[in-house]
């Protein structure tokens, strides 16, 4: 059955004997084997309209997702793998069951454990085809800017977005992908599941976390190697003092990446570092080379639309114009070739006395200070003097509050200096590298750190605006 605009195969980049997954033991799973295993797993799954996918292993996650596609179920990808989150999601999706590769502590929902089907149960069948307009999964925001919200995704849009990313970054059947991000997050789903499905690229089943594990996963993967990761993982890697295999490309997302860190990564890995811009709502839609032109370049079919309250985008892989949560400054006329500069999230803009700053930019300036391993500015809830109550939570062993403020002095306007600095051993990042706001507020509420006397210019009242 040929591909049409109305129906697309489960593996659009199918080449039967090409590797699709590389396991921790360096065993190869071919595309043919993956299809037969997904079919066999689908036949054993309980009947359910929704599958809450809690798998840790990327290969087993993909098997569960593919089996759900074959069975006609909609997959639900929670922002974390906590039983409480699964219970909360299940309330809105009657009949949902969980599917995981290991038992989940405290889970009271029906659970199917994914195992690789026995080869005797695997029978080669025709390629499954899926309607392009079929809703196949629902992703949930991480909660870093509020409560998690559902975002349904259609099969044709997912394939289209993966193909757009493949054209931009040059993914193909020869590519080997190692990803440190979870596949339940849109960034991880797109780059480590859908791109391999769409192009035939091979992806490591593991999700390495520590630098030595990332190094080992890269060493097991055949060249050309592509590392899909986050600024937090990259910062840990450059500080680890390890010898690294050749890496052809590093792709980063989930948080702004400083040029200083990108330069260190490029030098250490003899590679190029590229950043992705996108969201759960849109998927990836633009990219840039961090050490090159600071402007972002839209993907081929993406077109920005100026709106009264911001910018929306259209694309071949978006069902409708989609509003962006960020403020953009366009180069030239702001068309697809002109590029743009990312100012920051509209909801995270701070304005006082005619001066404006984004929390994202403040965070970049903070983490550029020598001795700061990780850190974030936190604005309080509500509009009552948010600038006057700014706080910083930082991982900076050996630094004092005074030294940190002094480090900020030459980087940001004094009106945006924090009133509180709280040092912690680590920030509460979730598996996607995000920082849930409720966890940050909890740190501030329980900290005994006293306020810092504000700089003179910071005694004026300010407002947080979305403009």
TrEMBL record:
The record, for Pfam families, names: AMP-binding (PF00501)
What residues does the AMP-dependent synthetase/ligase domain cover?
126-290
Molecular function (GO) terms listed?
Answer: medium-chain fatty acid-CoA ligase activity
**SUPFAM superfamilies documented for this protein:** Acetyl-CoA synthetase-like (SSF56801)
Which GO biological process annotations does it have?
fatty acid metabolic process
Residues of the signal peptide: none
Q: Which InterPro entries match?
A: AMP-bd_C_sf, AMP-binding_CS, AMP-dep_synth/lig_dom, ANL_N_sf
Q: Give coiled-coil spans as residue ranges.
A: none
Q: Which keywords describe this protein according to UniProt? A: Ligase
Family label: Belongs to the ATP-dependent AMP-binding enzyme family.
Q: What is this protein called?
A: Acyl-coenzyme A synthetase/AMP-(Fatty) acid ligase
Question: What taxonomic classification does the UniProt entry list for its organism?
Answer: Bacteria, Pseudomonadati, Pseudomonadota, Gammaproteobacteria, Chromatiales
């Amino acid at each position: 059955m040929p591909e049409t605009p109305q129906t697309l195969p489960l593996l659009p980049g199918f080449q039967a004997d090409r590797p699709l997954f590389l396991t921790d033991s360096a065993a190869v799973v071919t595309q043919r084997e993956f299809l037969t295993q997904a079919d066999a797993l689908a036949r054993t799954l309980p009947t359910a309209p929704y599958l809450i996918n809690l798998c840790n292993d990327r290969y087993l996650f993909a098997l569960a997702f593919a089996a759900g596609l074959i069975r006609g179920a909609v997959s639900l990808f929670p922002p974390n793998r906590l039983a409480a989150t699964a219970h909360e999601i299940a309330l809105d999706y009657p009949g949902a069951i969980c599917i995981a590769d290991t038992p989940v502590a405290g889970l009271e929902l029906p659970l199917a454990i994914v195992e690789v089907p026995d080869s005797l149960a695997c029978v080669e069948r025709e390629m499954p085809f899926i309607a392009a307009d079929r809703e196949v999964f629902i992703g949930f925001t991480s909660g870093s800017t509020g409560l998690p919200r559902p975002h349904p995704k259609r099969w044709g849009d997912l394939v289209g977005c993966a193909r757009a990313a493949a054209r931009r970054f040059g993914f193909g059947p020869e590519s080997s992908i190692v990803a440190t991000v979870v596949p339940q997050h849109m960034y991880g789903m797109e780059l480590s599941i859908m791109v391999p499905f769409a192009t035939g690229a091979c992806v490591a089943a593991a999700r390495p976390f520590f630098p030595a594990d990332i190094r080992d996963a890269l060493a097991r993967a055949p060249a050309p190697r592509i590392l899909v990761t986050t600024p937090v993982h990259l910062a840990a890697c450059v500080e680890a003092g390890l010898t690294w295999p050749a890496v052809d490309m590093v792709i980063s997302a989930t948080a702004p990446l400083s040029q200083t860190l990108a330069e260190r990564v490029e030098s250490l890995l003899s590679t190029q570092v590229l950043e992705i811009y996108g969201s759960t709502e849109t998927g990836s839609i633009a990219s840039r080379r961090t050490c090159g032109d600071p402007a972002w370049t839209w993907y081929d079919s993406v077109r920005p639309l100026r709106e009264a309250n911001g910018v929306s985008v259209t694309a071949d892989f978006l069902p409708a114009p989609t509003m962006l949560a960020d403020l953009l400054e366009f180069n030239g006329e702001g068309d697809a070739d002109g590029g743009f500069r990312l100012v920051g999230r509209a909801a995270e803009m701070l304005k006082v006395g005619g001066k404006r700053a984004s929390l994202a930019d403040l965070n970049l300036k903070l983490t550029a200070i020598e001795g700061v391993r990780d850190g974030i500015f936190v604005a309080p809830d509500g509009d009552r003097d948010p600038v006057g109550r700014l706080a910083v939570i930082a991982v900076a062993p050996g630094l004092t509050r005074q030294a940190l403020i002094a480090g900020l002095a030459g980087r940001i306007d004094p009106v945006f200096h924090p009133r509180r600095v709280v040092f912690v051993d680590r920030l509460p990042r979730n598996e996607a590298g995000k920082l849930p706001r409720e966890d940050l507020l909890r740190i501030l509420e329980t900290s005994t750190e006293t306020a810092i006397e504000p700089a003179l210019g910071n005694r004026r009242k300010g407002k947080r605006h979305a403009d």
